[in-house]
Amino acid sequence: MIYLRKYRYVILCAILCILAALFIFSNSCKNGEESNAISSGLAESILALFNGNGNIDTASFHKFIRKTAHFTEFAVLGAFLTLLMFSVEKITGRYHVSAIFLSALITAVTDEFIQNFTGRSSMVSDVLIDFSGAVTGILLAVLIVWQIRRSRKKKCVSEPIP
């Protein structure tokens, strides 16, 4: 039981990483028509909110929504990978920064590779968008963890010794 308690955050973060990757890959497994229908519906709903006078080009906005969705899901994956790294660091005392960047890149390449088998196009620019999202998620998570650790350290230093 003590063993599980020590690794509970590692296990939780690993599960979150796996779930995020499965979500990404499940979207990649959808064929072009199915994927297009989902993103078109979302784009139309959002466009209805912001395009009161009809100035926004629907096709361009749809493409923007698709790319933003990829960026966002990889940002979430990047944040989860970073939390996994920090939870491992608490146990081992080592950072594995290259592992999170490599994992994000491999996931982005695999995501595009899967799309080849569903009749969708596979593009290097999409890998770059996905990886950029992951890097953004990684940096945001690092900043948040750094800020939390910094505030905890200040709190400990500022408390008077009884």
Word description of this protein:
The structure is a single chain. This protein is mainly α. The protein has one domain (2-158). Helix content is 83%, strand content 0%. It has 6 helices and no strands. The protein has helices at residues 2-6, 8-28, 32-50, 58-92, 97-115, 124-158. The chain starts with a helix and ends with a helix. The mean pLDDT is 86.
Helix and strand content put the structural class at: mainly alpha
- Please report the total strand number as a whole number: 0
Q: Helical element count?
A: 6
Number of domains: 1
Helical percent range? over 70%
Mean pLDDT: 86
- Give, in order, the helices and strands: HHHHHH
Shape: globular
Task: Describe, in short, the structure shown.
The protein is mostly helical and 162 residues long. The chain has helices at residues 2-6, 8-28, 32-50, 58-92, 97-115, 124-158. It contains six helices and no strands.
Helix and strand topology:
Blueprint: H1 2-6, H2 8-28, H3 32-50, H4 58-92, H5 97-115, H6 124-158
Helix pairs in contact: 2-4, 2-5, 3-4, 4-5, 4-6, 5-6
